[in-house]
Amino acid sequence: MSLRVLYLAHDLADPAIRRRVLMLVAGGAEVMLAGFRRDSNDLAAVEGVMPIELGTTADGRFAQRIAAVVKAVAGAGRTLGLLPRPDVILARNLEMLAVARRASALFGPPVPIVYECLDIHRLLLKQNAAGRMLRGLEGWLARDARLLMTSSPAFVEHYFKPLSSVDLPVMLMENKVLDLSDRQVAPPPQRRPAPDEPWRIGWFGALRCAKSLELLAAFSRAMQGRVQVDLRGRPSYAVLPDFDARIAAEPYMHFHGAYKNPEDLERIYGQAHFAWAIDFYEEGQNSSWLLPNRLYESCRHGAVPIAFAGTQTARTLGGKGLGFALERADPDALVQLFDAMTGPAYDAALAALAAAKPEDFTAGRRDCEALVQRLRNLAQGLPTPAAGLQGSMTPYRSSLEVDAQDG
Predict the structure, then answer these.
(1) In total, how many domains does the chain have?
(2) pTM reported for the whole predicted model
(3) In the beta sheet, which residues pair with residue 227?
(4) Domain limits for position 112
């Protein structure tokens, strides 16, 4: 009998939501999807899963999102109450945890809740009364949850253990590339440009970092065409309201629109020599702790990642001997990096990518089955192997390690 999962999504158009649904379905689960919509990104639609819309939220408007959540909680009986009883509720982000608690109560005996937190919002990190109140609310909403799913060990080290009042077993679920073909192959070879061709840097995904945009614009102009920057994905117009005008004014930066994840990754990374794996959006906090999609996507598909020194991304890449770490966040540092980018230096970086383990960057069908098995054990009331955050624990286990212990 398949596991029935109710997945509550903070943004139905987020490609990461689509990837998680695909993982659950590939692992053998029956998925019911409900959540908020922020835009009409049709590329994020999941084949065979019709979402229930709980309302509309706006990027960057926290008060509006709170009002939408309150309305969704009040109307949960109408929107979710007629669904078949789920075995597990998976709640993405804090606002959906509030909806999950209300949804759980609709189905009689409480349904186990998993709190999926893949970003730490800056408001949760404030040391004032508002920050303490929000962290208290998070702990209160999570008190009936059974598992915390997060994507970077730094989130646990810097937030969940020292600051948050959440005390749950932890499952590390990295933002790996989903490949259901289970091809255990090295990244494809990437040619270096001909003498008359530019280097190409790909900046793909959620485009929300004004500092990266300024830095890459100044750098590409300084290189006078020797480096081109290709942007793809979803610009955040709440953060970058003049994004279109800025890109139109840049001679060496080009925006190519949205793409489908994971289907288009091999194509778009195959057109880039390097990948911009840097984010200053919440510098020193979430941006320093996360392990972004770009890290896994670029390594899997043969584009050499450029990270920022001192971040979790740079530490992870450095531990594997991969990519380059930018020591300073200024155009001159990038100019120096590319002035020293000889053919042999680039070939050595590519060889390191080719020698890396594909499973370090790729989630295959076995990972999907391991995830669903972990959720099935949770639904059946089986003990979780990791202790709570405040006790002794071994939180940083891959889904394959979970499979070996739980399955």
Answers:
(1) 2
(2) 0.89
(3) 199
(4) 4-180+364-406
